[in-house]
Amino acid sequence: MLVIQRHLMFGLRKKKPKAGDEEHRYYLLPGMGRSNRRFRSKIQMWSIIAGIVGSALIGVVLWLVNR
Predict the structure, then answer these.
(1) Which of 33, 52, 57, 64 sits in a 20 to 30 Å window from 14, CA-based?
(2) CA–CA separation, 56 vs 53, rounded Å?
(3) Residues near 42 by Cβ (< 8 Å), separated by ≥ 6?
(4) 41 Cβ neighbours under 8 A, 6+ residues apart
């Protein structure tokens, strides 16, 4: 009995839909696809690189001004 409850608790067994119930469907909204995730990760990487380079340039300028 305990083993059966544990399987149900962790969702290892699929529940059968009741008669007349629709199956749960998963829809992707626009911009949620795989290609968009790759595009956003590329933009994030370049944004981080640009932030590091920009802050380094500002740091060099401030160092030269205060020298």
Answers:
(1) 33
(2) 5
(3) none
(4) none
Rounded Cα gap, residues 67 and 64, in angstroms:
5
> Cα(62)–Cα(67) distance, rounded to whole angstroms?
8
- pTM for this model (two decimals): 0.54
Query: What are the two backbone dihedrals, phi and then psi, of residue 9, each rounded to the nearest 5 degrees?
Result: -65, -40
DSSP 66: T
Place 34 in a pLDDT band, splitting at 50, 70 and 90: confident
List the alpha helices (DSSP H) in 1-67: 2-9, 34-65
Place of tokens 């956003």: 40
Cα–Cα separations (whole angstroms), residue 36 to 26, 42, 45, 49, 50 = 18, 10, 14, 20, 21
